[in-house]
Amino acid sequence: MAHSPELIKELEGKVDVVRNNILRIFAGSGQGHSGGTMSLTEIVTALYFHHLKLDPNNCDWPERDRVVLSKAHAAESIYAVLPEVGYVPEETLDKYYAYRSQFQGHADRWCTPGIDYSGGSLGQGLSFAAGMAMAEKIHVEMNPPDLHISPMSYPRIMMKYNPTYRVFCIVGDGECAEGQIWEAAMFAGKFKLDNLINIVDYNKFCIDGPTEYIMPLAPLDEKFRAFGWWVKEIDGHNLLEILDALDLANRLYGDGKPKCIIAHTVKGHGIPIWENVHTHIARGESMTIGLKEGREIYGEI
Amino acid sequence: MAKFNKYIEIGQPAMITVGVEAGMAKVVQKYNNVVDVVEDTGTLAVDWFKKNAPYRIVECGIAEANASVVAAGLAAEGLTPYILGFTFATLGRAYNQIRQSILIDHFNVKIIGREMWGELGVSHNVVEGIGSLRVLPNLIVLSPADVVEAEKAFVAMADYIGPVYFRLESQNPMRIFTNDYPFELGKAYTIKDGKDATIIATGYMVTEAIKAVDLLEKEGLDVEIINMSTLKPLDEEAIINAARKTGAIVTAELGSIIGGLGEGVGALLAENAIGALVRVGIEDEFSQSARITPDRDELMMLHGLTAQDLVLSVKACISKRDGSKPRGKRV
C-alpha cells in the first residue's frame, strides 16, 4: 500500500500544474467557483494522474472508470485536468463560460469529453453514480465472464477480482443536506454496490456560512456507516492519505459495501484570500487578488 | 351510429393497463437491455422478469427522486429503464431530477405515469400532468386512447431512442381501434371525418368525444374527431388542416386547460389566424374524490367533461365561428 516518495513528488508537481490551470481558467472567465474548486485540487490530481483507469486516446472507452461530479459547480477542477490527460486541447482553458465552449458553466456530459455526468442541480450525482454502478452489476449478470473454473467450485462473485469499471462520485458537504443523497446511500447499501466510491469534499462551508451552522452534518461517518457503507476519513490535501484511501477502497472490492471517503478539506485551499473568507464564487476584486496571490505562490504560467 | 374511418371498431370498455402489459411483453422479447425501475407501485411484466432476469428488476422503494436518477445512470450505461409510478410522485416529486439527469442528456428512459382519477382524491388526481410535461425539451409525451393503441404506442415508444413519458389514465376507455391499426409516433389519427366542427381529444376524452358525436349527429351536426395521442410534439399539420376545413375546434383533455393540449392547439390557431376554439378540460382548480361506476362518473360531471358537455362546447364553438349568438355553456 505504501506509495514511493518519487510518486508523491511527481504528483505534487502535477498538483501545481492543475492549480495553475485553474488560475488560468479563472483568469479567462473573470469569475468562478473558487472555493469548492480549490478544495478538490489534490483529490482530482490523485484520481486522474494515478488512480483512475482511463485511455487518453478514447474518452468513451467502455471500461474506463467513471467520475460523477455531483458538485458540478466545481467543474473547473476537472477542466484543469482534462487538457493534461489529453481529452481536450490546451486552449480550451481560456474558453470557460464561452458560448459553445467545451467548458460549460457546470459540468456537461455532451459538451465535454471526459465528463460523465451533467450536473448543476445538487444532490443527484450519487444516485446517478449508483445507477452506473448498478449497470455494471447488471451487465455482468447478463454476460457472465468465462472464468475457466467450474461454477460449482466457488460462487462466481468471489472469483471476480475487479469490476469492469468503478464509479467515483464526488459530492460536496453542503449537498449532503439534500434528502436524495441519503436515498442514494440507502440504495447503494441495499444493492451492495462495492464498485461505487463516494468522495465527500468536506470543506465545512456552504454559500451562506459554515455547514455546522447551515445544517449540521456530524457525525457524517457514522451516518454513512449506518447505511451499510465502508467509511474512511482522510485529510483531503494530503496526497499520501488520498492514495492510500483510494487503494484500500479498490482492494476491498467484493466485500459488498459501497465505499465512502470523507476528505476533510479547506475551502479555497492554497489561496489565502479565498481561504480566509471562504469564498464560494470569486469575482471582481476577490478574483483579482486571488489570482495575484496564486501566481506569487505557484509561479507564473 | 356515426360512420368512422378505417381501423376503427368501437367495442366494450377495456382496462388500458392490459394494453401496456401486452406491449411490455413484446418489448422484453424484442430488447434484451430492458430494466424495470420500481418505486413500490407495481412492476411491468413482473412474471417474465422473475422467471428470466430477476436481476433486471431494480426496486428503489418509495424514493422517486433517487429512482429517476438511478434510471438515468442505468441508461448512461446502455440499459433501457422503464419507470412505472404515479404521476403526482414520479413526475411531481422528481420533476427536477427528470429535467436535470434524464432530459438534458437525452437518456433513453421511459416513464409510465399513472394518472389517477376518482376515488383516491385530490392528492392522486393530477390536473397539471400534461401542462408540466409539455414545457420540457427533449421529451416525447404519449397519451393513448384505448387498450389497442396503448399496446402499439408502448412498442413504438420502445423503438424510439430517447426519453418518453407515457400517460396511463385510470379510466376504462372504449375499445376504439382494430388490431391492425398502424400507430405512428407524432402523428394524429382522424377517427371520424366531419364538416361542421372538429373535436381534438387525447386519452380517455376520445371515448367521450365518440359518445358526443352520436349525440351531435341527432342534432344534425357532422363532427370530426382527431385522436391526438402524441401530446408532444403536437401534429401541427393535422391541427391546421382541421382548422382550415371546419374552422371550429374543440379540444378535450383530462387535465388543466392551462398549459395543456388546448393551449398547444390554441397557440397554433392564433399564430395562423384561423379557427374558433373552445377548450374542454379542468378549469383552474384541483380535483377531489368521487365515486365512479361504469355508467356514472361524478367527477367528470363536476368538472364538465362528459359527452353532454362536449356537445354544448361544440355548439358554442360553431356559434363563435359563425359570429352568431352563442348558446353553449362556455363562451
Describe this structure in a few short sentences.
The complex is a heterodimer of chains A (301) and B (331). Chain A is α/β, with parallel strands linked by helices and 301 residues long.
Report, as a whole number of angstroms, the end-to-end distance of chain A: 34 Å
Major sheet size, sense and barrel closure of chain B: 7 strands, mixed
CATH class of the largest domain in chain B: Alpha Beta
Strand content of chain B is 15-25%
CATH homology superfamily of chain A: Thiamin diphosphate (ThDP)-binding fold, Pyr/PP domains
Numbering strands along the chain, what is their spatial order in the largest sheet of chain B? 2-1-3-4-6-5-10
What general form of chain A does the structure show?
A: globular
The ordered H/E elements of chain A are HEHHEHHHEHEHHEHEHEH
Rounded average pLDDT of chain A: 91
The oligomeric state of the chains shown is heterodimer
Question: Which structural class best describes the helix and strand composition of chain B?
Answer: alpha/beta
Count of alpha/pi helices of chain B: 12
Structural class from helices and strands of chain A? alpha/beta
Give the ordered list of helices and strands of chain B.
HEHEHEHHEHEHEEEHEEHEHEEEHH
In the sheet with the most strands of chain A, the strands line up as: 2-3-4-6-5
Distance from N terminus to C terminus of chain B (CA atoms, Å) equals 29 Å
Report the radius of gyration of chain B as a whole number of Å. 19 Å
Count of the domains of chain A: 1
The CATH architecture category of chain A equals: 3-Layer(aba) Sandwich
Overview of this structure, please?
The complex is a heterodimer of chains A (301) and B (331). Chain A is α/β, with parallel strands linked by helices and 301 residues long. Chain A has a single domain (5-298), classed as 3-Layer(aba) Sandwich (Rossmann fold). Chain A is 43% helix and 11% strand. In chain A, strand 5 (230-235), helix 10 (239-251) and strand 6 form a beta-alpha-beta unit. In chain A, helix 1 crosses helix 4 (75-85). The radius of gyration of chain A is 19 Å and the shape is globular. Chain A starts with a helix and ends with a helix. Chain B has 331 residues and is of the alpha/beta class. Chain B folds into 2 domains: 16-169, Rossmann fold, CATH 3.40.50; 189-322, Rossmann fold, CATH 3.40.50.920. Chain B has 12 helices and 14 strands. The longest helix of chain B is centred in the C-terminal third of the chain and has 16 residues, at 307-322.
